[in-house]
Amino acid sequence: MSSRSSSEQDADVIVVGAGPAGSTAATYLARAGVDVLLLEKSTFPRDKVCGDGLTPRGVKQLIDLGIDTSEEAGWVHSRGLRILTNELTLELDWPELTSYPPYGVSRTRHDFDELLARTAQRAGARLVERATVNGAITDERSGRVIGVNAKLGEEREPASYRAPLVLACDGVSARLALSVGIEKRDSRPMGVAVRRYYRSPRHTDPFIEGHLELWDRSDPRDPKLLPGYGWAFPLGDGTVNVGLGMLSTSKAFRSTDYRALMRSWLDSTPEEWGFRECNATGKIGGAGLPMGFNRTPHYRDGLLLLGDAGGMVSPFNGEGIPSAMESAKLAAEHVVQALARPEGPSRERALRGYPATLSDLMGGYYRLGNLFAKLIGKPRIMRAATKYGLRINPLIPLVYKGLSGCYDPKDGDVVDRIVATAARLAPSVS
Ligand SMILES: Cc1cc2nc3c(=O)[nH]c(=O)nc-3n(C[C@H](O)[C@H](O)[C@H](O)COP(=O)(O)OP(=O)(O)OC[C@H]3O[C@@H](n4cnc5c(N)ncnc54)[C@H](O)[C@@H]3O)c2cc1C
What we know:
- The structure is a single chain.
- The protein is an alpha+beta fold.
- It has two domains: 2-69 and 103-187 and 292-370, FAD/NAD(P)-binding domain; 190-288, Alpha-Beta Plaits (2-Layer Sandwich), CATH 3.30.70.
- The protein is 31% helix and 25% strand.
- The chain is built from ten helices and 21 strands.
- α2 runs parallel beside α6.
- The longest helix has 32 residues, at 345-376.
């Protein structure tokens, strides 16, 4: 396909950002014979603040890419999710489904992102590290994105690259989208999350853990419910990734000192878990979680938005890697079709298929998620849900499949059909 490259263009497609979205898209495109330039501001291996956990929905994406997800290949497998509240602990195995495997995985982003970037390189994508993109180049007449400006290397040498299509995979900062005026939609939920690694005997726990309530028990006679939700994802290497997050729908969202909140919560967890300052390896890191399609349109004038750049973190559980990789696969499919057509209306029709298919895949579920985020932002509703709702046995699979996004949308059981129908019927909240 690179034969289509004209002398003025540097690639068929420029992908900005080599996180899960960018590396996945670059892999699929390169495998289809597209000449791909993958521009990444950092160098691999590098860290990325994350929980490092994938539900089966994310594992499917790795399998689709042809990545060996066995434990021998360095992945830590989880058999399910443990949900904790003040009153109860539920251990739920990942469901048996047609669409997804029955296990989740964990791996530090230090390893994970490099693995994906090298997969893209092996497929033929040209990775340029230390290439910080600072904006789109647009055609003066048509307004169409025709390339990007960047700064290269330590010296920050200016450079520009041209291609008929550009994929914005630059994460929550979304610098590329912003450079062409695609702003964040404040009506959609946003999250903030912080995490830290702790040496812990629980590093081989077969369950990943979700804490629906965080308690400060520094005064045992007067335990205090703190805002936010927590997790503990075992990494099998002696450490556990522990973190907490909060949604913008919560009153405490803007006024919270997240590092102090983390310490109050963890100092109140059982001593034997090891989540104490003396066992911490490294600092607390935090970042924003752009949720529920909070940046649209996902395609305009030669620019496609993928993953966090398109606000694709799940409002139900803060997971963003599966959706980043799902969006990458869809974007690659549409780009390959588009490039096989002449420039003009026919190519545009193929490209407009990307946001439409993305919306079919995630739009309804995220609309439902945005409503969910509004409800759980109200502490009284959340407390009633955790205190009473989780005691109603028939509700548990519904909550579990709904929250994890692990359900069969077409040929599933009755619970899957309820989640799928609710997602289809969910009204828009903006
Ligand atoms: C504390 C925390 C915990 C989380 N836990 C989980 C979890 O357990 N599981 C899960 O699925 N999701 C989790 N998420 C969300 C997840 O991290 C993101 O949704 C996911 O990384 C999105 O992938 P992406 O490829 O879209 O963006 P990113 O992973 O952010 O990748 C963007 C890439 O673009 C590069 N880049 C950025 N700007 C530029 C530029 N100007 N020029 C060139 N390159 C650029 C970056 O260096 C990076 O490599 C968590 C997020 C946070 C903050």
